[in-house]
Amino acid sequence: MNKVQLRQKFLKQRKALSLQDWQEKSDHLCQYLCSSDIFQKAQTILAYFSINQEPNLNSLLILDKKWGFSRCVNDQLEWHFWQDQDNLEIGKYGIKTPLVNAPKIETKQVDLILVPAVACDHFGYRLGYGGGYYDRLFSNSEWEHIPKIGIIFDFAYVSRLPVDPWDQKLQGICTELGFYNCY
């Protein structure tokens, strides 16, 4: 299957989850993530607000961490700090984003990035929605040293995905069944 077909397949599977299954899987995923060394050591974490039944990370947002969320600006991601009481707006693609005047996050402040994905493989490659936002971000040398963890449900964790030259690898994958390092 090509990327378009795989994307359709996994999005269909994700949408078929009942609300209860989706939340239970999300909760288990967050437990595995919280118990990982990389998460425990991180102070400033870039994350995402769930859309299209992506794993829900909301239970993590109460933890004593600094959280950053993106805004789509042209064809790039711009990161802003966000705290639980801060207002949000609906941005590009219907995604919740911090307000434009929220404090920006500098790359050097970031300890970990939780990356939304449609699917990931055992080698650390991810299948996203096709916009290339994360691949463009990760191809920038100033983001190379920051660990990136793909967040998916286990049915979307596959042995091998098709890979293009611009695809960027993740250092780990977290599902509701465990945390996996990629090398």
How far is it from the N-terminal to the C-terminal residue, by CA? 24 Å
Helical stretch tally: 4
Question: Can you tell me the overall shape?
Answer: globular
The biggest beta sheet, please?
Answer: 7 strands, mixed
- Classify the oligomer: single chain
The sequence of SSEs as H and E is: HHHEEEEEEEEHEEEE
Under CATH at level 1, the class stands as Alpha Beta
**Within the largest sheet, what's the order of strands?**
3-2-1-6-9-11-12
Mind telling me the C-alpha Rg?
15 Å
CATH superfamily: NagB/RpiA/CoA transferase-like
The proportion of residues forming helix, as a percent range, comes to 10-25%
- Indicate the CATH architecture: 3-Layer(aba) Sandwich
From the helix content, strand content and strand pairing, which structural class follows? alpha/beta
Describe the structure.
With 183 residues, this protein is of the alpha/beta class. The protein has one domain: Rossmann fold (3-Layer(aba) Sandwich), CATH 3.40.50.10420. It has 4 helices and 12 strands, in the order H-H-H-E-E-E-E-E-E-E-E-H-E-E-E-E. The strands form 3 sheets. A 7-stranded mixed beta sheet has the order 3-2-1-6-9-11-12, with helices on both faces. It has a 3-stranded mixed beta sheet with strand order 8-7-10. The longest helix is centred in the N-terminal third of the chain and has 17 residues, at 19-35. The chain is globular, with a radius of gyration of 15 Å. The protein starts with a helix and ends with a strand. The mean pLDDT is 93.
